[in-house]
């Protein structure tokens, strides 16, 4: 029987041997470019520095299997500009694998098998982009990104259920993408002092917009599409003073109360594909910067005149596939900049001659797939229209000469209406003539 001491000695020896054989790059193909010439070599080395030549600004692409990036394996390379280590079966990055890489801009680590990012993995890096998307990351240890500076970090399509505070310690980061993870909240101060302007949280499990969590003074874009948000509370956006784009499509909203968006600087607001039935009369009050409003695929039954009365900059309104039966008169009287109006797929029956009162030009007007059975020949007398879509309505005829009725319209779509016998010929001729005009 061997003594315990001998066992321990053998163990130490084994550890020593395996330590000295920490080869990060074993028989991998390494590609880089010099003066536009693609160079490829098969290399085995513990360090990338020993593989690539000492030329200015090299972009390296590694193919093959690299299960572990050992400490200092990508270190002290004064000319490395881009490193693509995507899809190499990477399972682990030892802390301080990266360091002293002054010109590094792009670090691509997507489509690997990383499960956690340890403390000090990306410390002191000053880069433009780190891509960690499509891994299996469940944990980012505090300090994983200590003293880190980047424009974009992507952690899309991982398995994060929580974000610990201290992950982004002393960090400057412009855009953080955490889409398609399993997050339902973020610790209140975790992201607050890093200068974030864009935050993508599409496809997570957020149920609300908590102003303590979303306290990001510089944030301009917030993407919360396809979460589980049921309720918007008045004041929910009060700690996002610079927010200009907000995506809330694909959530579970049933109501838009007042006091959520008032006095924001929002320019783009996407509320499509919720279950919205009710929008408060003053829901969009004081949104003087609003340009694009999208409420497609909801259950809105009537259009409230007050919604956009203060939204003087609005240019694009889309309310496709709701249950609206009537468009009120003078609906856009306070929105002289509106140029794209989309009411496709509602239940609108008739449109009065005063509907588009005060508008001079509508670039795009879509009324297709409604129940319009009567077209007032005077409706578009004072407004020019780029493209008008009346397909799939219930029109059996349109009174008067169609060239005159649609004289201010560049392109008119009238297909798939139940034209009566007297009318069908005139409509077909009109469509044919328009086609000839165009060609
Ligand atoms: C790498 O190549 C060497 C020499 O061809 C070979 O002995 C070794 O087994 C290879 N290692 C792997 C992991 O394929
Ligand atoms: C990075 O490498 C992966 C896998 O080899 C490749 O599919 C991808 O196109 C590369 N990306 C860039 C930006 O070079
Ligand atoms: C490693 O990641 C690749 C690409 O994401 C995936 O196809 C593969 O199944 C993963 N392997 C393991 C063992 O998880
Ligand atoms: C970080 O990189 C940017 C751009 O490459 C450079 O302007 C800046 O001086 C760098 N900061 C440090 C601390 O090296
Ligand atoms: C914060 O990070 C910068 C580099 O990005 C570094 O120069 C500075 O010393 C760090 N400050 C602290 C308090 O760690
Ligand atoms: C961070 O990077 C930006 C742009 O690359 C640069 O302008 C800035 O000086 C950097 N900040 C630090 C602390 O290095
Ligand atoms: C927004 O509306 C809410 C509720 O109507 C009101 O209490 C709040 O003072 C308004 N906020 C601003 C900044 O106007
Ligand atoms: C919205 O309408 C759809 C179908 O028209 C219906 O299935 C759904 O239950 C409605 N949602 C609400 C909140 O009324
Ligand atoms: C709408 O515009 C009219 C003048 O065209 C103005 O008197 C009215 O105050 C505006 N409504 C709102 C809510 O701003
Ligand atoms: C639509 O038609 C109905 C019945 O013909 C009428 O009562 C209603 O006032 C019309 N609505 C508009 C907006 O013209």
Automatic annotation (TrEMBL):
It holds the Pfam family LRR_8. PROSITE patterns: LRR. One of its GO terms (cellular component) is extracellular space. Keywords: Leucine-rich repeat, Repeat, Signal. It comes from the Eukaryota. Residues 1-20 form the signal peptide. PANTHER family: AGAP008170-PA (PTHR45712), INSULIN-LIKE GROWTH FACTOR-BINDING PROTEIN COMPLEX ACID LABILE SUBUNIT (PTHR45712:SF22). This is Uncharacterized protein. It comes from Zophobas morio. The lineage of its organism: Eukaryota, Metazoa, Ecdysozoa, Arthropoda, Hexapoda.
């Amino acid at each position: 029987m061997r003594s315990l001491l001998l066992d321990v000695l053998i163990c130490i020896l084994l550890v020593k041997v395996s330590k000295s054989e920490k080869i990060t790059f074993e028989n991998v193909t390494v590609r880089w470019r010099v003066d536009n010439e693609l160079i490829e070599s098969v290399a085995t080395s513990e360090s990338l520095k020993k593989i690539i030549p000492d030329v200015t600004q090299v972009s390296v692409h590694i193919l093959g299997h690299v299960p572990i990036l050992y400490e200092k394996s990508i270190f002290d390379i004064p000319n490395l500009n881009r490193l693509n280590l995507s899809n190499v079966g990477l399972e682990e990055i030892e802390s301080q694998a990266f360091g002293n890489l002054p010109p590094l801009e792009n670090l691509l680590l997507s489509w690997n098998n990383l499960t956690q990012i340890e403390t000090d993995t990306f410390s002191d890096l000053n880069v433009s982009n780190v891509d960690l998307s499509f891994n299996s990351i469940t944990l980012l240890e505090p300090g994983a990104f200590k003293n880190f500076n980047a424009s974009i970090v992507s952690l899309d399509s991982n398995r994060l259920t929580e974000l610990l505070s201290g992950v982004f310690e002393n960090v400057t980061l412009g855009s953080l993408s955490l889409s398609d993870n399993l997050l339902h909240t973020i610790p209140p101060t975790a992201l607050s002092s890093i200068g974030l302007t864009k935050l993508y949280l599409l496809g997570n499990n957020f149920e609300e917009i908590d102003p303590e969590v979303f306290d990001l003074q510089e944030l301009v874009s917030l993407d919360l599409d396809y979460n589980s948000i049921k309720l918007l509370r008045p004041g929910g956006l009060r700690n996002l003073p610079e927010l200009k784009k907000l995506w809330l499509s694909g959530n579970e909203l049933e109501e838009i109360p007042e006091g959520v968006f008032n006095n924001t600087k929002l320019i783009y607001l996407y509320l499509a594909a919720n279950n919205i039935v009710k929008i408060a009369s003053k829901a969009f009050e004081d949104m003087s910067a609003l340009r694009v409003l999208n409420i497609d695929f909801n259950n809105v039954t009537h259009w409230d005149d007050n919604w956009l009365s203060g939204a003087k900059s609005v240019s694009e309104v889309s309310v496709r596939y709701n249950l609206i039966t009537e468009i009120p008169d003078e609906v856009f009287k306070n929105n002289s900049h509106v140029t794209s109006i989309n009411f496709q797929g509602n239940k609108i029956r008739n449109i009065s001659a005063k509907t588009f009162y005060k508008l001079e030009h509508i670039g795009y007007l879509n009324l297709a797939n409604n129940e319009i059975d009567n077209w007032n020949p005077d409706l578009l007398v004072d407004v020019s229209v780029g493209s008008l879509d009346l397909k799939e309505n219930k029109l059996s005829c349109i009174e008067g000469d169609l060239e005159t009725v649609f004289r201010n319209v560049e392109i008119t779509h009238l297909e798939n209406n139940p034209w009566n016998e007297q009318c069908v010929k005139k409509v077909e001729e009109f469509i044919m003539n328009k086609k000839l005009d165009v060609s």
